[in-house]
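#structure-requests
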Amino acid sequence: MSPFPLDSSGLWREVRSGRPAEPGRALFVDRDGTLIRLVHYLCRADEVAPIAGAFESLVQARRAGFRVVVVTNQSGIGRGYYGWDAFAAVQARVIALAEAAGGRIDGVYACPALPGSGAACRKPAPGMILAAADDLGIDPGASWIVGDSASDLEAGRRAGLARGWLVPTGYGARDRDRAAGLASGSFRVTIGRPIAALGAALATDRAGPAQGAP
């Protein structure tokens, strides 16, 4: 039996808070390039470096009534570059940074599948978001996703989320055009604004038309 919270499909599926009586909203957050500096195949906790304002924005999200759920592709595991023990050590550091800032992470979902595998959990597929919504009683239509790639936002759109936020860090500059093209009447998109600006937007969010790059 695995010592890690893996489901039958091999998805890391860690629930860190209780299920509310009524469905609530959540902020789904990519990890590498969004919360912490992008390091290819990150597998060492001492290489975790927070992006300015990232963990403070999670505190603001909670104050605005959003639960916080990390959803991260981790193909380094599928490639055999590192194991779940290394992922757990890195993720423990991320959780510690969130808590030190006064925030909390309610769930962590990590997919080890390779690109092109067709795995339901690997972004841009929506599997991790849908699993978290089921586990934590989340209303997708009231929820957001923030990430540094178009695949993050596409996963959010396919899961029925209300809004995607593409940060300029990580792969954000590369994916601006692709991410902007995901905007629709039911999925609003914000392009190129830093994660430090996210908390204020969450606090004032109201349903409205889709938007492209500001």
